[in-house]
Design goal:
With 228 residues, the protein is α/β, with parallel strands linked by helices. It has 5 helices and 12 strands. The chain has one domain: 4-Layer Sandwich (Purple Acid Phosphatase, chain A, domain 2). Strand 7, helix 3 and strand 8 form a beta-alpha-beta unit. The longest helix has 15 residues.
Length: 228
């Protein structure tokens, strides 16, 4: 079973409660995948306590509200185990999970960066960078993936979202969305799951079904379950 979760913004107590609730209802191994804005490394705060349910795994991708000075220390294209069974998926990682080939591509631009302090609570490397894209094209062979997990979405999806929500216009300059267009074209996923916009939405663009998840314990849908 795979459970996709939207932004958590450092709310690890809520995350622990949610995972415990889902596990108690299903009593089976679960892979929890968090779609960014985790704040695992944040402002010199202590390592968060993540209570992983039995036989389960937690994978998260970076969003924009992260400590990118710490994230950049990790090699691209891998799952990095930070705690027992808790992994950060660096950009370009591809893993077979419960019969699905899943690609992880974190990063996005902060619209509130002018209100933040550079290299304290905002980092310019938060967007999908040339280094990330060089890895995807120079190192990774062209292949078919089933699911793309990202923080923001490709521009082909963003154009649909912006017609539904007026305030999304402020996010329209994010170069990460255009980078994800290129990734979708190369790896041809069937499903794109992402967060970032704090609102539940879903739809389809050509052969790509997409799901946007809200932030954890909001009054909107913030998780999606896939049973295998």
């Amino acid at each position: 079973m795979i459970v996709f979760i939207g932004d958590i913004h450092g709310e690890f107590g809520k995350l622990n409660s949610f995972m415990s609730e889902i596990y108690s209802k299903n009593k089976e191994p679960i892979t929890f995948i968090i779609c960014g804005d985790v704040a695992y490394f944040w402002l010199n705060e202590p390592t968060p306590i993540i209570k992983r349910p039995p036989y389960s795994k937690i994978i998260w991708i970076p969003g924009n509200h992260e400590n990118w000075e710490m994230i950049d220390k990790y090699e691209l294209g891998k799952l990095h185990e930070l705690q027992d069974g808790v992994f950060m998926a660096s950009f370009g990682a591809i893993e077979e999970i419960e019969g699905h080939k899943i690609m992880f591509c974190g990063g996005a631009e902060s619209t509130d960066k002018n209100l933040r302090t550079p290299f304290v609570d905002w980092f310019p490397q938060e967007i999908i960078t040339n280094k990330d894209m060089d890895y995807v094209f120079d190192i990774l062979p062209k292949q078919k993936v089933d699911i793309l997990v990202s923080h923001t979405c490709p521009s082909i999806i963003f154009s649909k979202l912006s017609k539904k929500i007026d305030w999304l216009e402020e996010k329209s300059s994010d170069p990460s969305t255009y980078a994800l267009d290129i990734i979708v074209d190369k790896f041809n996923p069937n499903l794109n799951v992402f967060g970032h916009f704090h609102k539940f939405m879903e739809g389809r663009v050509d052969n790509l079904y997409w799901v946007c998840l809200s932030y954890i314990y909001s009054n909107r849908i913030y998780y999606k379950t896939m049973k295998t």
